[in-house]
Write a structure and sequence with these properties.
This protein folds into 2 domains: about 25-390, ABC transporter transmembrane region fold (Up-down Bundle), CATH 1.20.1560; about 395-485 and about 610-665, 3-Layer(aba) Sandwich (Rossmann fold). Helix content is about 60%, strand content about 10%. It has 21 helices and 12 strands. A 6-stranded mixed sheet has the order 6-7-8-3-9-10, with helices on both faces. It has a 4-stranded antiparallel sheet with strand order 2-1-4-5, with helices on one face. A two-stranded antiparallel sheet has the order 11-12. Helix 8 (about 185-230) runs antiparallel to helix 12.
């Protein structure tokens, strides 16, 4: 495994100003060298919100501006406060010039300010004018204080509203994104987008729009004031602005891809960390703590190196700006001082000039200074919109209708399906499940049993063929109403951090406690629940960590039973139970499953002998189907499996041979 230092050197080589990473970035293509590909290898497959920019920058900015429409009122208030504040601050230097040239030094007062002002200025003594000038400055300061308070409050309200709005969109979209995409995204990466990226998303309005708008206004006022005082000295200042513009161009081209890269690395580290502690039992049982720690430290060291590399660029740019600023100040004092000596301008003019020089220079400086924040925010915004642009897993057709029950049957007709291109899982599968009957699916791992249930509940769509409910394609029904027909119990049980009652009621939020208890009794869960001090109000922890595997499976089964579904899918639903618990559940399930359409996936054949039909799958195709007695009479693969389980029960584990491949049951 390459060290973080070596990886960092490769990163520096790719991410320099003339590096492949930046060139691909500017073209809108993927940044090669990440994931599986090297600098000269093929680009990795694009992921939602990964390091590949899927659209030109203008696309993301238009999308962002489109989200601002619902916040017009707050944005208008912020713009108004900004413009008024800028106007008040522009009065300050001229008021100070008046005090310096005409009050403190008692110079000749101007007589071209209008009749009223001329009368006031010429009739007052210096002390009175000093008081008036100080009063004006105080009023300006108080007004600025009030406007800054309003601006701060409205900014926070706007930021909170923007974050809440985009988070709602992301959560809603994540709920309908394809499972294939969600399964490739780590939990930590998703959390990073919803939390960290959204914070930067809201700050883009200030850093990328409002602040530059104020800067442009400040620049215009500053330039006009400088030209009014001395066009010659203004021309000197313009040369320094050109230098800053060149620096800004370099910053924009270098920093943005680097910031997005840093965000991707942070997401990956967060995802890996969440995965490690989510599977901490597996980590410990196999003694992988040192390896996981080393992987984290290595990834974090690489992140630190990249971050420091970015910081060094930032620091260097800021020092360049500082040097230009100092050089400009010295030049202005030298040239301006010479003009004062020659009496081309007054001392007050020089003071105003130096103040407005910063109005001329400061906007460029602020834009330069905020470029890193803007790059950071733009990178986060791109990741958010890339994720929101992902297609939904399944979309209702315009003419889709709701469905309330199953009357006849469910049919698979010549269904082909593959998770990865070129690797078929189901091949021309045809299957009928009559209403009120129980179908059992058996076969080796990878035969396609769980895939059938995934297609049935429309987690995925088949590449060809059709699935019909009562002779109508299932995509002719609305997804929500169609899925409401089902309850699903998986072998890999997922429970939420909450009480036992809340987890059982997840399938029916309005269930009464009596209904919850009844479902728990059917699932043989009531007895162990009653043994807890808090009974049904017992907190079970994240993923049900406080329950045993068998207890979790029984709670999951109770959750499915509570819904009283039209169609019940049991995918190894009793695999974690001991024989006694399984027998207890089987006896109660017989009544529940009676006249209910049920699909059962099982390796333990004792649980499916009473099924109305048993389908044997091998390599994505049904090779045998019938009742238990019919299949035993065929003396085929099913009979071979039954004989292996029941006649060699003393041997553990039991081995079954499927097409010369040995699998463990």
């Amino acid at each position: 495994m390459a060290s973080s230092k070596k990886k960092y050197k490769e990163y520096r080589k790719e991410s320099g100003f003339f590096g492949q990473r930046r060139k691909n970035w500017l073209k809108g293509g993927p940044r090669w060298g990440r994931g599986g590909g090297g600098p000269s290898g093929p680009p990795p497959e694009p992921m939602p919100g990964d390091g590949s920019r899927k659209q030109p920058l203008s696309y993301y900015l238009k999308r962002y501006i489109g989200t601002l429409g619902q916040h017009k009122k707050h944005i208008i208030i912020l713009m108004l406060m900004g413009f008024l504040g800028m106007g008040l601050r522009a009065v300050n230097p001229w008021t100070s010039k008046f005090m310096l040239d005409y009050v403190l030094t008692q110079g000749e007062r101007p007589q071209n300010l209008g009749a009223y002002l001329n009368k006031v200025l010429l009739s007052k003594d210096s002390q009175s004018l000093l008081m008036i000038t100080c009063l004006v400055l105080a009023l300006i300061a108080l007004s600025e204080l009030l406007m800054n308070t309003v601006t701060d409050y409205v900014s926070r309200v706007l930021s909170a509203k923007m974050q809440a709005s985009i988070r709602r969109q992301m959560i809603k979209h994540l709920q309908v994104m394809p499972l294939s995409v969600l399964e490739r995204l780590k939990t930590g990466g998703i959390i990073s987008r919803i939390e960290g990226d959204v914070n930067s998303f809201s700050s883009l309005l200030h850093d990328g729009f409002l602040a530059p708008l104020n800067s442009i206004l400040m620049f215009a006022i500053g330039l006009g004031s400088l030209l009014l005082i001395s066009p010659t000295v203004t021309l000197v200042c313009t040369g320094f602005i050109v230098l800053l513009a060149l620096a800004a161009f370099c910053v924009f081209n270098i920093m943005r891809p680097l910031f997005r890269d840093l965000h991707e690395d942070r997401s990956k580290i967060s995802g890996k960390l969440a995965e490690t502690f989510g599977g901490i039992r597996v980590v410990r049982i196999f003694g992988r703590e040192p390896r996981e720690t080393a992987d984290y430290i290595g990834a974090h060291h690489l992140l630190i190196r990249k971050s420091l590399h970015t910081d060094k660029l930032n620091i260097g740019i800021r020092r360049i700006i500082q040097f230009i600023n100092i050089s400009m100040d010295l030049t202005i004092w030298a040239v301006g001082g010479y003009y004062v000596i020659k009496r081309h301008i007054s001392i007050g003019d020089l003071m105003v000039f130096t103040r407005f020089t910063h109005w001329f220079f400061h906007p460029v400086f602020m834009i330069m200074h905020s470029l890193s924040h803007v790059q950071h925010s733009v990178a986060c915004t791109e990741r958010i919109f890339d994720m929101l642009d992902e297609k939904q897993a399944t979309v209702d057709k315009p003419d889709a209708i709701p469905v309330k029950a199953i009357d006849q049957s469910i049919c698979f007709e010549n269904v082909d399906f593959e998770y990865e291109e070129g690797k078929p899982v189901l091949k021309g599968l045809s299957l009928e499940i009559p209403v009120g009957k129980t179908l059992a699916l058996v076969g080796p791992s990878g035969a396609g049993k769980t895939t059938i249930t995934n297609l049935l509940v429309r987690f995925y769509e088949p590449q060809s063929g059709s699935i019909k409910l009562d002779e109508k394609p299932i995509d002719s029904f609305t997804i929500q109403s169609y899925r409401s027909l089902y309850s699903l119990v998986l072998q890999d049980v997922f429970l939420f951090d909450g009480t036992i009652a809340e987890n059982i009621a997840y399938s029916k939020p309005d269930a009464t406690i009596e209904e919850i208890v009844e479902a728990a009794k059917i699932a043989a869960a009531h007895q162990f629940i009653e043994e807890f001090p808090d009974k049904y109000e017992t907190i079970i922890g994240e993923r049900g960590v406080k329950l045993s595997g068998g207890q979790k499976q029984r709670v999951s089964l109770a959750r499915a039973i509570l819904k009283k579904p039209e169609i019940l899918i049991l995918d190894e639903a009793t695999s974690s139970l001991d024989t006694e618990s399984e027998n207890a559940i089987q006896n109660t399930l017989k009544e529940i499953l009676k006249d209910r359409t049920t699909i059962v996936i099982a390796h333990r054949l004792s649980t499916i002998m009473d099924a109305d039909s048993i389908a044997v799958l091998v390599d994505g195709a049904i090779i045998e189907q019938g009742t238990h007695h019919e299949l035993m009479g065929l003396n085929g693969k099913y009979a071979e499996m039954v004989n292996a389980q029941f006649h060699k029960a003393a041997k553990t584990p039991t081995h079954i041979v499927w097409n010369d491949e040995e699998s463990t049951t």
